[in-house]
Automatic annotation (TrEMBL):
Species: Colwellia psychrerythraea (Vibrio psychroerythus)
Lineage: Bacteria, Pseudomonadati, Pseudomonadota, Gammaproteobacteria, Alteromonadales
Name of the protein this chain belongs to: histidine kinase
Enzyme class: transferase
Listed InterPro entries: GAF, GAF-like_dom_sf, HATPase_C_sf, HATPase_dom, His_kinase_dom, HisK_dim/P_sf, Sig_transdc_His_kin-like_C
Record-listed E.C. numbers: 2.7.13.3
Alphabetic keyword roster: Coiled coil, Kinase, Transferase
Database matches in CDD domains: HATPase
Catalysed reaction, written as an equation: ATP + protein L-histidine = ADP + protein N-phospho-L-histidine
Amino acid sequence: MYYQKNEELIDSWNKTLAVVAKLASVPVALVMKIEKNNISVFSKNNGTSDNPYTIGNSECLNGSGLYCEQVIKSQKILNIPNALSDKNWNNNPDLKLNMVSYLGLPIIDETGSPFGTICILDNKEHVFSETTIELLEAIKQSFEVQLKQLHQQHIAEEKQKLEELSILISGLSHEINTPLGIGITATSIIESNIDNIQQKLQSKSLNQNTLTLCLSTIKESVNLLSNSLSHTAEQVEKLQDLLICNDVNNHQLIELSSLVKSTLKKHKDILNIGNVKYKIKHHEHNDTLAFVAPHLLKQVLLILCKNSLEHGLADIPTPSISIEFENHLDLIKLHFRDNGKGIAHSEHIKIFNPFYTTNRVMGSSGMGLSLAKRIITQQLHGEISILDSPSGVHFVITLPKCAYLSSNK
């Protein structure tokens, strides 16, 4: 199941069990998990040489005679101060590891089925206090809550993946089917006009006007077909850009404020549509150095600006875009804001999905923000997110100040 590979959960439980073992004054604290017909060590207290158990070690569950088998079958607490003096337990397998005393509780998973046990063991007689029992019960309940939360998170993630896939398929279908439909229609018109010319030639009734009209129609149809094919190729190329990440080696330490100014100046013809005012907020005494590939960050800036121009700032009386820098020790944040219509909070989780758009009827493909995120996260090794804003939209781009060290270096 999904939590079997959740290293973060195991690490958290290991640390908790280490505290439990210390407070209970025992060498061993474990979480044992049912694995089909076996029971295995899922988590353990680390940092002590007195714990003979290793994560992943397993034993056959049924008929094993283990302490934990009894806990799982009874779904009740098992408290054994000294197995050597208990005729029911003086031959149990854990005695081979010198585990003389045992206190264990059952853990159930998010479905209410047995998950395994949480237990503490000692290599000598140990009468466990009420405080220790209450502590173990509290930890058990905490672990069960975590399992339920992890399950809910897993369901939410799977649901989101399905929604993203649905958006991707729907968007791709629209972007491909529309030009394909146009192409099929144009081809049909071309074929019809060619047939008309051939029939006129065979009947020797083709005149100059008919030929001119047919050729004009064919030419228009060819242009329409060519434009449709070009649009399809462009969308496929954009999708390839999203799926294929090519590392770039021209990262350099640059001043972001200078890059932003030069980008807005260079592309002012397309960015000044609608009399938008651009404000760059930068305190001169603060550097805005970041380690980036300039052409990629310029591409992201253009995407964000165009996104605002096309979606947020239309019909806004005094449209404006502001870019502000926030300096930190190892990173720098670029705040991109506009005073437009904004994006509903419910849409925040979707806007970076490929082909997601609320403006498809106006020709938007929904590829811009997804491409921006891919560039920022995969090639510039940063992050991009959208924040709630009282007006307009507010994106935050986080970039490293020093060279990114990849795992293959």
